[in-house]
Design a protein that fits this description.
single chain; mainly beta; 7-stranded parallel sheet; 18 strands; globular
């Protein structure tokens, strides 16, 4: 497998460059019924590190388009690792040490499966590991560990969510830095 790396060109510090942004003009990804990729927007076998990711943008930002994030490593962003405003499948990836939420779902339909989400630290809002505001979310078979956030730790569900499935996850050693509510 060949990996594509997007990183800071000089100083290896969070926020060393912008982000990868899939807009509403991106070709939606299509998967078959078994979850196999057919065509469209995909971020696969990539390493994304030291991106900005601030202000809800995410090192990887999905706006409306249907994106498949598969077998990626997303780390050391100055904000969120992945931010979704639309539809996405995030699977088989490692999202760690971001200075925001590992995955931030502002709205949309999102499947989060078979990932390792660890060491993310949300300072202003969110749950460190996964923070969802409004959306239909499936969270299965992930390892969510060592995250910290003011409103929750492993996951924080704002309240307008529809959780389709939350099962098979390993959730350990997450720490709340503020009031915990609606946290797994």
């Amino acid at each position: 497998e060949m990996r594509i790396t997007s990183t800071a060109s000089e100083d290896k510090v969070p926020g060393g460059w912008g982000n990868i942004h899939f807009t509403d003009k991106s070709t939606p990804s299509k998967l078959d019924d078994a979850g196999n990729y057919i065509k469209g927007s995909v971020l696969e076998y990539s390493i994304i590190e030291y991106a900005t990711g601030m202000g809800g943008t995410g090192a990887v930002r999905v706006n409306v388009s249907n994106l498949l994030v598969d077998h990626c490593t997303i780390s050391n962003a100055a904000g969120n690792g992945v931010s979704v405003y639309g539809k996405a499948v995030i699977r088989n990836s490692t999202i760690y040490d971001n200075k925001g939420n590992g995955i931030y779902v502002w709205w949309g339909t999102v499947t989060i499966a078979n990932n390792t989400i660890t060491g993310n630290t949300a300072f202003n809002e969110g749950g460190g590991g996964i923070f969802t505001v409004v959306g239909t979310v499936t969270i299965t078979n992930n390892t969510i560990t060592g995250n910290m956030g003011p409103q929750g730790t492993a996951t924080y569900f704002w309240g307008g969510d529809r959780i389709e499935d939350f099962s098979g996850n390993t959730v350990v050693d997450n720490k709340a830095s503020g009031t915990t509510k609606n946290t797994a």
